[in-house]
Amino acid sequence: MNAGDWITRGVSLLRPGHAPDGTKAATDSTRGKRAVGPRPLGERLEATLRRPGEALGPRALRNALVELQSVVDPQISEVEAGRRAHAVVQWYGARELDERRDIWLLMSERFAPDVQKLSTARDRHEAAVGTPDEGQAEIGLRRALASPRARLLQRFAIDPDGMRFLVDLRAELLPHLKGDRRLLPLEAELEHLFSTWFDMAFLDLRRISWDSPASLIEKLIQYEAVHDIKSWADVKNRLDSDRRCYGFFHPRLPNTPLIFVEVALVDHISEGIVPLLDEAAAVVRPDKATTAIFYSISNTQAGLKGVSFGDSLIKRVVETLQDELPRLKVFATLSPIPGFRGWLPKKADEIVARLDEKRAAELGRAVGSLPPTGERFLAAADEALALDARSPVRQLLLQAAAEYLGRATADGKPVDPVARFHLGNGARVERLNWGGDPSPKGLRQSYGLMVNYLYDLKRLDKHRAWLAQGKVAVSGGIDDLFLKG
């Protein structure tokens, strides 16, 4: 189904008497029974009375549509459009969630491209392909594809609070998409606009330090997603002396970092998070540091999901650090492995079965089962921090983690979200660290394991090319951990 057919079908679903799935809806007069389920938006707009379960009544729904249409009135100035948009934002802010859902439906369904114009433009473009008129026909098709919905959202952005409104609207909208596919056009329009509005060309990289405004530092505490900040002393430790924090900022959201990264300046690749967060640890003089460890990266805006900042953030921070501290030569992460513990139970039997006879016997004696089973292996792994370096359970956990990071892929991409991010940037899996994060969260995610991803600046493009071919870049140490059976 092409775009024109999809839009045509979408418009047909707005006709009275049709349900969202395209089937004929029940009516009050059908066999004398009351209609079941939500009415299509078009039917609600033409009705007189609100049914149980519907948020805005027909009159309020019509009034809301009129207010939205007034924002995109082509006869008014941009200033007036911004004023009207601001009034809608104020009204929307006082609405309950179910009422907001009705506004989303209005934006999604009542501000679509003109189906007839789109069909005509598409036919003209297809007929003009390969002729001197192709360029002009393409322009016509692009204009027909431009929806009033995009214009509506653009005019909301005129208001000083408009960008905040749109980002928050999408954040609230996203969890409802699976339950109501009618909202997909609005979500797609927002994502498309955000990918342009939040392009790297419009973002500022700023260092966040202990001297930054308290309101900004409070946002770091609020949005830190990897290692919780426990106190003001903790946050000071992450911003002062041999620590750095950088964030991307947008001029329309000037006091909120869209994403931020915390960096430790050290003299070796770090093996665990505890020393990095230790407020009493010895300080390394920044001008003597040789290694920059990226130990926490946090996105702050759920409404910007799908808009990529992280790869550019790391590159920009590396450039900034190199300019400030020329002795820095090594750039690596100390990263969690958030999906490992959830993945392992699905693969435990298979992993145990791949052991040779000698190792299977060693594991069996350790877990009390000959031959060993995946279930017994997982039970023993629950006591991960108590396992010594020679434990067969510990060794197999490390090997399983190497398999997970270096070989577990879906559609050619690593299944672990953090691995997918760093490997997609061109990093390589460098080293696994036993007990790297002994916190309850670390144990829940990965039995306490952490991983270093190395950013070898001369090989980033090469590693990305490998990943595009389905091959993950790993160090020799990780390669040695792969199961051979």
Question: How is the secondary structure organized here?
Answer:
Layout: H1 3-12, H2 41-46, H3 58-71, H4 78-93, H5 97-109, H6 115-128, H7 134-145, H8 148-156, H9 162-173, H10 184-197, E1 204-207, H11 214-223, H12 232-239, E2 243-249, E3 259-266, H13 273-277, E4 291-299, H14 310-324, E5 330-333, H15 340-353, H16 357-367, H17 374-381, H18 392-406, E6 409-410, E7 413-414, H19 417-424, E8 428-433, H20 440-446, E9 450-454, H21 460-468, H22 476-481
Parallel strand pairs: 4-5
Antiparallel strand pairs: 1-2, 2-3, 3-4, 6-7, 8-9
Helix pairs in contact: 1-6, 3-4, 3-5, 5-10, 6-7, 8-10, 15-17, 15-18
Measured distance between first and last alpha carbons: 45 Å
Structural class: alpha+beta
Considering DSSP H and I runs of 4 or more, what fraction of the residues is helical? 40-55%
Beta-strand segment tally = 9
Low-confidence parts: 1-35
Strand content: 5-15%
What is the chains' assembly state?
single chain
Q: Please, how many helices? A: 22
Largest sheet: 5 strands, mixed
Neighbour order of strands in the largest sheet: 1-2-3-4-5
Average residue-wise pLDDT: 90
What would you report as the Rg, rounded to the nearest angstrom? 28 Å
Based on Cα principal axes, name the global outline: globular
